[in-house]
Amino acid sequence: MSDRNEIPSALSLSSLNPRIARFNHPGNDEENQKRLSDDLESALSHEKNELLPNETRGEEVAPKSSFTSGLIWMVINTLATIGIVFTNKAIFSDPSLKLAQLTFACFHFLITFLTLFVLSRPALAFFVPRRVALLDILPLSLAMSLNVILPNLSLAFSTITFYQIARILLTPTVALLNYLLYRATLPPRALLALVPACLGVGLVSYYDSLPPPTTTTTTTTTSSTSPKTTTPLGILFALTGTAASSLYTVWIGAYHRRLKLSSMQLLFNQAPVSAVLLLYAIPFIDTWPAAWSGVGAGRWALIGLSGGFAGLINISQFFIVAQAGPVSSTVVGHVKTCAIVALGWAVSGRGVGEWGSLGGVVVAVGGIIAYSVIMLQERGKQTLGKAPGQPVGEKGK
After folding, report:
1. What is the pLDDT of residue 363?
2. 128-157 b/e with 16+ CB inside 10 Å = b?
3. Can you tell me where the transmembrane regions are (predicted)?
4. pLDDT one-digit tens code per residue, 5-24
């Protein structure tokens, strides 16, 4: 079969099912990956969008929803995403749990699988589960594990502000991967917008790793909430996590085309395999608390809350898909980024007067917002047929 020998671009694949990569597992920046799949879709010619007949596309059917209910689920999703970042940061601030990352990821994969299992039951019937061969899903499940573990390690060794800003690098990295693998290009204006985004991340990386000005008031009040600086390990995990997330984002579309599964069906197969893979590695890699009984009730409550947020993210994503178009999805994603960055800054103990890091945040967020606006404009031109026969991006020869 030629499908197994030729993996098409994630960009064209996401156009076969606009919901590809939107329903994602917790711990992952799901809105960002969804936007990447949609934005980069316009970088390929229209004829590649018809690789798959209509009857072979996924069986995922979004529930009909009013505007009000869609808005409510967007709010729930936004609050749950913000909540899970700060909850996980509080969990990782415990030295006894900071290096139990595989165990924590395994727990989240289990929550994801159970959530999907409930949604697939005949009483709800949000999607029809389909099984695939273990060897077919194994590479994607491994990429999924790295996609969660490495960013979580970055969160454990970084400030929340740096962790979130560093995720902006996912956009240019996916663009680079698609160019190297499939010669898919972006509009020149979009590429220019990514330059300040990358520069801003660099500024935040540098200034956030410097010791903050010593003050008598902030040091004592914030030391238990968030580290004052980002460590070199945090930067390393952020960069490797970006690479893993970018590869995973590209592979999602390729595997969707190859296995002919909807995004929910694909994740339903990935989650348990990823959990089992981690079970084999946990005894050799994770460092557990000396005694689990020594973990306070507050930490256990946070772990349970993190799982609850994970379930809400998964469920709300499925309802949002009925209402959120490209603009709504983009706005919600930027609201999450700005809210997490602002709240992270507030609890980090850093002052507004630290212009280096603050300037990097503004430049990075401004660049990625400009990129999103440009891509929405280009997609609108294609939709309205203002430039027939002239795709936004052309495949290189």
Report:
1. 93
2. eebebeeeebeebbbbbbbbbbbbbbbbbb
3. 67-87, 99-120, 132-150, 162-182, 189-207, 233-254, 266-285, 297-319, 331-349, 355-376
4. 443 333 333 333 333 333 34
